[in-house]
User: What shape does this take?
Amino acid sequence: MIPLWAQIAGAAAAIASITSSSTQTTRMLRSRTAAGISPSTWILLTISSVAWFGYGVSVRSPQQIIANGSWVVLIVPLTWFMLHDRPRRVKLLAEVGIAFALIVVIALGTVNENIPGWIGIPASLLVSAPQIRYSLRHGRGPGISPTAWAFLATSSYLWFAYGIGAREVPVIANSGIAALLGTAVVIALLVRPQPQHLASSAP
Assistant: This one.
């Protein structure tokens, strides 16, 4: 049985995750662009969100289903904005591909509940690296929200506490490192402000 303190940490992590994804979604919809988000981070974030949602389903964790489900929802507009210069049929195929991947991951979770988690770990650990590099090289674009990444890092610290209490090794391994890397992304976004030409064109 999961201790009460761990359940509270998981609930808090879910709230932080939902706040993070909703903040980033709002930022993109207002600016009507995903500029500032690394393409590699977008791909890894898609894999991570789908895999961890599947893991939440496989272990029947309401906290993880809700938290990662919010990120799966974010992936829909993010994919659309990232493929803004591609034909509509390409965008639709990408969305269908995400839905298919979600079905496959959930199916794998019925074979072994840890499979989705082990799929999500590499993506989650790598997702921050290209964003750090991209932000340091290009500055903070109008489509990315530092606040969203701050909440995401906070949720990782809380998931680490939850993983310890729940004794879920994939969660511990993933969230511990992801918390540190997420913090590094926030620092990178703060030390490299939005380029002036982008700031002047943003609504």
Remarks:
- The first helix runs from residue 4 to 31.
